[in-house]
Amino acid sequence: MIKFAQFGAGFIGKIHGANIAKHPRAELAYVYDVLPAPAESLATQLGAKVAASPEEIWASDVDAVLIASSTNTHADLLSGAIKAGKAVYCEKPVDLNIERVKAVAREAQGSARPILVGFSRRFDPNHAGIRELLHSGEIGKLEMMSITARDPKPPAISYVKVSGGQLRDQTIHFFDMLRWLAGEDPIEVYATGAVLVDPAIGEAGDVDTAMLILKFPSGALCHINCSRRADYGYDERVELFGSLGMALSRRKPRREISVYKGKSIVSEGLHAGWFERMEPTFYRALDALIRAMEGEQIEYPTLTDGLKAQLIAEAAVESLHTNRPVEITYWSPE
Amino acid sequence: MIKFAQFGAGFIGKIHGANIAKHPRAELAYVYDVLPAPAESLATQLGAKVAASPEEIWASDVDAVLIASSTNTHADLLSGAIKAGKAVYCEKPVDLNIERVKAVAREAQGSARPILVGFSRRFDPNHAGIRELLHSGEIGKLEMMSITARDPKPPAISYVKVSGGQLRDQTIHFFDMLRWLAGEDPIEVYATGAVLVDPAIGEAGDVDTAMLILKFPSGALCHINCSRRADYGYDERVELFGSLGMALSRRKPRREISVYKGKSIVSEGLHAGWFERMEPTFYRALDALIRAMEGEQIEYPTLTDGLKAQLIAEAAVESLHTNRPVEITYWSPE
Amino acid sequence: MIKFAQFGAGFIGKIHGANIAKHPRAELAYVYDVLPAPAESLATQLGAKVAASPEEIWASDVDAVLIASSTNTHADLLSGAIKAGKAVYCEKPVDLNIERVKAVAREAQGSARPILVGFSRRFDPNHAGIRELLHSGEIGKLEMMSITARDPKPPAISYVKVSGGQLRDQTIHFFDMLRWLAGEDPIEVYATGAVLVDPAIGEAGDVDTAMLILKFPSGALCHINCSRRADYGYDERVELFGSLGMALSRRKPRREISVYKGKSIVSEGLHAGWFERMEPTFYRALDALIRAMEGEQIEYPTLTDGLKAQLIAEAAVESLHTNRPVEITYWSPE
Amino acid sequence: MIKFAQFGAGFIGKIHGANIAKHPRAELAYVYDVLPAPAESLATQLGAKVAASPEEIWASDVDAVLIASSTNTHADLLSGAIKAGKAVYCEKPVDLNIERVKAVAREAQGSARPILVGFSRRFDPNHAGIRELLHSGEIGKLEMMSITARDPKPPAISYVKVSGGQLRDQTIHFFDMLRWLAGEDPIEVYATGAVLVDPAIGEAGDVDTAMLILKFPSGALCHINCSRRADYGYDERVELFGSLGMALSRRKPRREISVYKGKSIVSEGLHAGWFERMEPTFYRALDALIRAMEGEQIEYPTLTDGLKAQLIAEAAVESLHTNRPVEITYWSPE
After folding, report:
1. Cα gap C274→C173, rounded to integer Å
2. Does B231 touch chain A if contact means CB atoms closer than 8 Å?
3. Is the link from the previous residue into D155 a cis peptide, with omega within 30 of 0?
């Protein structure tokens, strides 16, 4: 059994905690949260102890930590976990300050324990399926990729102000996904956006509607379009256009129900939110970390992947502000 | 050029006349209708002459006749055409009196000219496509067939009273289709029905909702369901279930348009009527007759096919009235 | 917390046991199986005790029992549970001997505890969705229902010999479902079948391919087609045709992946088996029993429902053997 | 009857000629082609005369001309038609030299006769359907548009060298379409491309794979992706994302046929080429011109529309060459 401690007992913490409890080869030993009440409640429900401090966790015999606390604590906790020799599942992003991320990446250089950054969409069976189709040669060489990502409702303005903005908190999932799907790192990005959903988002210095084009070294092109608000639910889909065919990770309906009536066919639509759609990916991501800890050769989003996605986001933000394509500069701790 | 004369200048006559005029290797020489005005009008529009009588047509140099007049005239006109050595495209049914059909079939024995009975659904590309899939072995040996056929609106009660009823005027198309698809003749039929759409149909001695099961000599089973009224347009589809897979001739939407809105996906529905859906099959059926006349080896629904479909219908009607499965007795002019 | 004891630790027992353990308001106290090893193993995994005998369970403080043992033990265990005042989740069928089922139904007359018979398909969200559409009036009055049910592979011949045959073990799910969907009990059934999949099934006195038509008191008609083997996976779907529209519980694909290549669009197909498709319904059925025990007004398949489905199956078997429609005779313990 | 003369008797000329002949209120009086043989052949087939020169046509009593000759002749013929007071259906583009197009637009200022530039996709029922949905308010205010356009096979290199390149000959249809759909003119375009299909296209100075982002004055964004080669047939589709929903003009399959086999569902794919898919739009475009000539208030792509699409293409080409967004400058003859 792999022993876990978990930081954070909020919405996403509850999901992760329940997944650890459900996993046949993992157990949740500790929960820590700056707010004692949620920590107590989650720990009681899952049969874990409340840790008095992160230090208690570093000193404990847990094998791994799951960092689901607020973003501004991720980097310090990652540092602590690295020093204590714990494996880590860290929710994204590592830190909004890219220099801080680099510093953590440098620290992690010496560590042999797996660190998984929570780009859980890599574990969606539809997305993984089209990746296999591309990598197996079924659709030939990739020439164009197209990603659509639309949230049903914009986040609170208070979140928009601290999240880094649409490209850094929403699109970033797809900066990771496009690298993972293509098997290569984009070299240039052009991003443009508009404030069409809520003027308050504009006043907060951000956009709510964005379109991007990225270029890969192979010459392949990638389009992303994002919105903060879709009237019809959570819409995420990917198209891979290759020299020998096209693979689609299609929209997933809530239920397979249709009504034929009058001149129309009315079918049940999409999920109400990203969570309903993506919830099963969290367990699979956790399972991947556990398998990696058990020695299995298994792919997962690493700290370097997390950093690269953020570097793409930084270039995209620069492009958005300057209205010109921006070269993406990568960085390696070595 | 193949010269045609046409009997009947009503709704379906106009379609056939225009198709003859459009065909590059056919021309319409004569139109005959018991009502002079529609005959004049159609002839003028298509550059043909009005024939004063059927006899004028039998005596003329036309190569073929298209019989699109009222059902009670079909058998006599077929007889006339056979005697005059003309090829024939005859709208179904040949005659509601099965003995009269047999008599015509006997007369046709000697004739070398093609006679096509208007089961034009055989020329629908979707249906033809799944037939090819079955006959090529792609889905293995046929085990179950399922046919759905629903008209948007019931016909006029006056028509119900003379048409022979739902099984003889609506389902008959599918009695032909199942033979053509399966490549074998069913040996038994169980039919049941109900009056759910309009009590007046029941008062006229007919049903408006019917379900049937037919058995093939191979053991394969066939289900048909028919309704006189579907709120959502014309619904016709076929499923072939075989030992190695299933082939579907799916519903055909009017347009490929969808709207994602709220909790639903609303797509444009089916055609408003059978004619909008099946219209292109008339030209293809005509073309098949013309090719047959030109000597091409080409399959088309023959007089024998027309008779067999009617014999299945007779057995089905008996089953409907007796509520027990009825053996189908075929008959051959030889 | 509702305390459960479970009979049976085989394949389906493991599923039920895990569901009880997962349910927030239930706990598994005992496991009993005639084979001690599987009982031990399941009990250990789920933190329950092994019961030495059914009597130990009747005498215990458990509130409910889950009967997932072999079919021939169901009736006795139900009797025992009724006498001991326990609520019951009983896998279908209650007993292959219909008189034995009636006897148990009579015994249950006095009991106030809920007895749920495992027709878990009632808890499938797609099927439940079209039922709501019908009952809300969205598609008008039901006129035709069509159910397709095909298993990927035939069961072992040893099972065919004791199961009561295709209509009693496969189609029976849909005898329950059609009553539940229509909201009325069919009055007549015509069933026909063939041996097309495996001659050994025929030698065992059964069919492997079946088509049925049932009539409802309202005049509505219902078609069912069943096969023991579908090359393309588990295929279950339902169509409700009403006076104002049609509702479909469509096939559910494994994943939403398509490849456009050459002249074809290749999409991922259906689930490998009924279990992969229906697995989530078991938890929902258990949850319904628990809610009923908690006093919630909630619908679930009762002992009477189980009996009625079996009475329809008996009539269907008689129809299959006599090749004529058979009236369905219901029976009530009162 | 409206009398037409037609310039050009090649592939597209044959289509247009047959459409004129088929139209109930039009007749084809003259055909002119620099090559006498095709002119003779087409004229004979359609019952028209061969004109000895354009002048013969200008002097004739024809009401309208259809210009389907080679691109380099369009502008002169348009000029001639304007001077002679004929209505015009002119295949796109008017001229590759934008100054020449402006000159013709200036000449047309005085003319009251309709001039239709052949952006026939405006007459596709699917595309027209989503435009109605947008303009009726059904999906709210447009926020993002996405257009995919992929040809099955690249054109001959000889054509690539004279066509003006991918953006000027392929994408230009969608520069018109996006204006027509959005109801506003884009103000900026970013275009990027790659040579992934055939190096010879790169050697000819062009790209074969292109992605673009355009901005509308309202803030709405538009993405286009184009390829010269799609393994799976002709792929054209449009998505309109609005504040209240999303409308799709979906792909149109050749036939509605599917096979369920093994783990896959194989459905018939897309049309073999743009012509098979778009052929019905030519007749509808002709019909629009005829209705406009008859005095009906009807929308059609005008000379100004043709010019605007070309001005967008020029800006896109500049963007492609400079790798920066380019402002689009419109021009008006007034």
Report:
1. 12
2. yes
3. no
pLDDT of A274 = 94
Helices (H), A268-334: 274-293, 303-322
- Cβ proximity of C127 and C177 under 8 Å: yes
pLDDT the model gives residue A180: 98
Question: Which tokens go with D133?
Answer: 């949905």
The pLDDT, as a whole number, for residue A100 is 96
Helix (H) or strand (E) holding D261: strand D257-261
Does the pLDDT value for residue B112 go beyond 90?
no
Asked if the C-beta of D130 comes within 8 angstroms of chain B's C-beta atoms, the answer is yes
User: Residue length, chain B?
Assistant: 334
> Would you call A267 an interface residue with chain B, using a CB distance cutoff of 8 Å?
yes
pLDDT at D111: 84
pLDDT per residue as tens digits for the range D100-114: 999 999 999 988 899
pLDDT at A334: 72
- β-bridge partners, A50: A31
Separation of alpha carbons B300 and B305, rounded Å: 9
pLDDT digits (tens, 9 = 90+) for B29-72: 999 999 999 999 999 999 999 999 999 999 999 999 999 999 99
Please give the Cα distance from B141 to B134 (Å, whole number): 8
Q: Say whether pLDDT at A333 is over 90.
A: no
The answer, for D264 touching chain C at a CB cutoff of 8 Å, is yes
Mean pLDDT on B297-304? 96
Which positions in chain C touch D260 (Cβ < 8 Å)? 230-233, 235, 269-270
* Mean of pLDDT values over C59-86: 97
Share of chain D above pLDDT 90, in %: 97
Secondary structure (H, E, C), chain B: CEEEEEECCCHHHHHHHHHHHHCCCEEEEEEECCCHHHHHHHHHHHCCEECCCHHHHHHCCCCEEEECCCHHHHHHHHHHHHHHCCEEEECCCCCCCHHHHHHHHHHHCCCCCCEEECCHHHHCHHHHHHHHHHHCCCCCCEEEEEEEEECCCCCCHHHHHHHCCHHHHCCHHHHHHHHHHHCCCCCEEEEEEECCCCHHHHHCCCCCEEEEEEECCCCCEEEEEEECCCCCCCEEEEEEEECCEEEEECCCCCCCEEEEECCEEEEECCCCCHHHHHHHHHHHHHHHHHHHHCCCCCCCCCHHHHHHHHHHHHHHHHHHHHCCCEECCCCCCC
Residue type, C185: D
User: Which residues on D lie below 8 Å from B130 (Cβ)?
Assistant: 257
Confidence of residue D187 (pLDDT cuts 50, 70, 90): very high
Q: The tokens of C10 are what?
A: 């085989």
Looking at chain B, which subunits does it touch, using at least 3 CB pairs closer than 8 Å as the criterion?
Answer: A, C, D
CA distance C300 to chain B (A): 27
Q: Which residues are within 8 A (CB) of D30 and not within 5 positions of it... i.e. 6 or more apart?
A: D4, D5, D6, D43, D48, D49, D50, D51, D56, D57, D60, D62
How many angstroms separate the CA atoms of C106 and C109, rounded?
5
CA distance C78 to C156: 27
Q: Assign A227 to helix, strand or coil.
A: strand
Nearest residue, CB atoms, C129 vs list A125, A133, A257 = A257
| β-strands B115-117, B87-90 pairing | parallel
Residue A19 backbone dihedrals phi, psi, to 5 degrees? -65, -40
CB A269 within 8 A of CB B260: yes
What CA–CA distance (Å, rounded) separates B96 from B105? Answer: 14
CA distances from residue D306 to A28, A315, B331, C320 in whole angstroms, order as listed = 67, 37, 67, 70
Chain D residue nearest residue C235, CA to CA? D260
Average pLDDT, integer, range C300-324: 97
A262 CB within 8 Å of a chain B CB: yes
Residue B332 has pLDDT above 90, yes or no: no
